[in-house]
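Hey Z.,

So I finally got round to the fe (ii) ion thing we talked about over coffee. Here's the setup:
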Amino acid sequence: MRRETTYRRVSGDVDFGRALQVLADFGERVAVEPGNLEAASREMLAELRGLLGLGCMKLRAEISERRGISVETEGENGWWDAEIPIMRGKIRVGSLSARTTQTGIAPGEEQLRGLRAAASHLALAVDAAHARESAAMRAVHGSVVQLASEALGKILEEDRLYKTVLVLTLELMDASGAAALLEDGSVTGVGEFKEGLDALGEVAFPARKPWIGRIGDRHAVGVPVGRGGGALFLFRKEWPYLAWEGVSLKLVARQLDRARERSRMYAEREKTNLDAVAALAASLEMRDSTTGEHIHRAQGLAVEVAGALGLEPERLRTMRYAAVLHDIGKVGIPDAILNKPGKLDEAEWAFMRRHPKIGADIISRIDGFESVAAVVLAHHERHDGQGYPARMAGQEIPVEARIISVIDAYDAMTNDRPYRNGMSPEEAIAELDACSGRQFDPEVVEALKAVLIDRGREDD
Ligand SMILES: [Fe+2]
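And the result:
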């Protein structure tokens, strides 16, 4: 390899002025993406090659700190090659190389000037592209963080928090998969993520910084959530993550951590509320020996049936409270009626039928319990519209009330009363089936059967 510092003129015509014009035009109209420099400048380089009287011209993207131009030939009579760096500041982001049209003839000074001018125009185009891209990045970054904050602010259940964050970041950050490593070591995810799951636990995070690397055959970015060992990961097949994406994800993780704190506090408060409500309901136990145990059994079963019917978390909460409180109105029923050993007469029944309304009145005074009060009011309505107090029918009756109605009956039938022994579950279900579609919502009866079968399996 021989290096030349002075160059002979070449024989080919060089139209330097026109070449500069072509470069200026290129800078005006072309929209280059940083990774797309070569494709974007192909046409311009073909034209430039003709104007500068050069042979094949090539553009290559590369990141290095190598500086300076090189002009080399292989042997006295070989091809001459010139390579000009495209610099952004101190970093070389690419090279422009050209070969003379004839062997044994070095590139001329005008040709090299033309190449240098081309390299600096390309560097400007890359600069502009980076500026545009970072503006776009800031916009995406802002929307990911803002949407995460809005979505998380409304959710109180911890598992839904994770699911929401995963779906949101998967969509907005163009990932093919997203996964969360929970503090207990378990993993949850959306999209394609299974390939790298086993490896998630082994990723060691540098303190507080996003981790960018590869997991399995995927590019991955990961950030810790809180300080308990949990983490969020995104996977992408095609191209690597950039530092700003890691920062976005880190901000999302911080919001997730806060939302999780909030959800834990909420869960604790809900537990306290439920304990208080159960204590209130237990006051009935003092008067009506059947009610107390019945409340505990019915609550568990009602929430299971509601879950089997796919109720939303907010309605599961209503179910939980309504199951405990539905008979609270019995506090307003005189002992003589409530604990009467024999059958009630018509006047006593009329009194007894007031308990849903009394209960709803009591409960509606508690802030945030409006939906619970509505369910308590409706828990003696019937599917066929023959119930009380409002004679609602079918879907008009809140589903939580339809559930209580079925479970109340099932529990009453299967447990002993002072005046009779309880039925077997099979007999009680046959009885529910017989009344399904009249007294009871058939869908709820079926759901209860499914839950009881499941319980049976677990007991085996
Ligand atoms: Fe009742």
